Amino acid sequence: MSTDRTRPAGRRDQSGPRSAPGGPRSASNGPRSTASGPRSVPPQRSRRLQPHRPLRPHQWFAERLLAVLSGQRPVHWMLGHTIGEAYDQLAELAPSTPLRATHGSRPVLRHCRGAQPATGVVEAFASIAAGDRVRAMAFRLEQGADQRWRCAAVELGGERLTAGAPGCR
After folding, report:
1. pTM of structure
2. How many CB atoms within 10 Å of residue 18?
3. Which of 90, 106, 96, 95 is nearest to 154 (CA)?
4. What is the pLDDT of residues 63-102, one digit of tens each?
5. Which residues pair with 122 in a beta bridge?
6. Are 66 and 107 in contact (CB under 8 A)?
7. What is the predicted pLDDT for the residue at 74?
8. Which of 88, 108, 135, 165 is the most buried (most CB within 10 A)?
């Protein structure tokens, strides 16, 4: 049994463990040479190294609406996050899963932008991609007296989602 604690038993090369990112560099973890010359390793960008930026309300709601309309979450997941007819609209539409995965590809949020036409109101739009298909979603958020944002209206792909009136705009 080996008494060297820097490498596993049975390992025969002379390089030890690599230092942590940002730590001191040693000869064993620098750029390696090849027959064609030294090979430079591009710096890796990682989300873990970037500062965490909290999601804005419209981005958070877009993710939640996508999860419900793609069938990944039940519609009652949005119960406390909707006001007015928005929950009824979602409850009627969710069983048909209009943003469901196509050809095995899970739908993802591509872009989400919001505008604030008045204090306490955000009107947002998002593009959703699933495979080679891209859909549009628009929604309105209103901030209540308790400072919580709630979804007040949803539109999908140009059709207004109204309870009890299919195809009505």
Report:
1. 0.61
2. 11
3. 90
4. 999 999 999 999 999 999 999 899 998 988 888 888 887 7
5. 141
6. yes
7. 93
8. 135
